[in-house]
Amino acid sequence: MEKIKLTEELSFSRMIHGLWRLNDWNLKDQELVMLIEECLDLGITTFDHADIYGNYQNEAIFGKALALKPSLRDKMEIVTKCGIKLLSNQRPDHEVKHYDTSKDHIIKSAENSLKNLQTDYVDVLLIHRPDPAMDPEEVAEAFTLLKEQGKVKHFGVSNFTPSQFDMLSSYLPFPLVTNQVEISVSHLETFQDGTIEHCLQKRVAPMAWSPVAGGKIFNATDEKSVRIKKALLEVGEELGTKELDKLMYAWLLYHPAKIMPVIGSGKIERIRSAVDALSIKMTCQHWYKIWIASTGVDVA
Fold first, then answer.
1. pTM surpassing 0.90?
2. Which residues of 80-104 are buried (b: 16+ CB within 10 A; e: fewer)?
3. Which of 27, 48, 54, 270 could anchor a disulfide with 265, C-beta 3.0 to 4.6 Å?
């Protein structure tokens, strides 16, 4: 599988496995080991986590699987996130859902992630969402300390606008390596608000969460989804596939920004289908047919 070079020392697999719903998959530890191995066999080496996923439990589930076969760790890149504090029975001191990007919280969250994942380091730590009360000097201090201690190799952000990305970058002695944002055939805002252009300008490959639009294109109950589904099927007929998810991934892969879709499925057949999208070669006209179906208007 194609690898996307983020720095001289770090590359991600073009397709990334997302563990947001890991605890919903009800996998036994050995079954999760097998799923990880199957992903690696497909060329997927990058695994996406967050401290809050699965009500703060998914990192530990993944860590238990890694502990069963520690040799897997050197074959993968682990991404995790921090900065959101949920209302949760796992965190009884949280009185309101809020953001916390203080130096203390970032360090404690990263160290807790290391413990739960049963690893000595995380390849990339992301700030999960922009924090209106963020002190960038504190974030920079936390990032620098974690890097110096070898606990986190690289850093990035998630759901940041171009200006938020640049603001935080200006306080750091090293580059942010990615911005994980929502991108799909149904969610074009990142193309329209300057985020994708910013990634291209900074040579930062974005990670795409919800790359198949949360599944709503499959059922297509609203007018926009109906238009998109129709366009996908028409393009698919020309390309020799009726698999909507494969076509939605191929649409993202077409773009020169080197978008890296995060596959949020625990079913290996769905993961294989996503990887198969790498072999689909859309044309410019295919891409714009889907774009126009999503916007509902012709380009000017």
1. yes
2. bbbbbbeeeeeeeeeeeeebbbbbe
3. 270
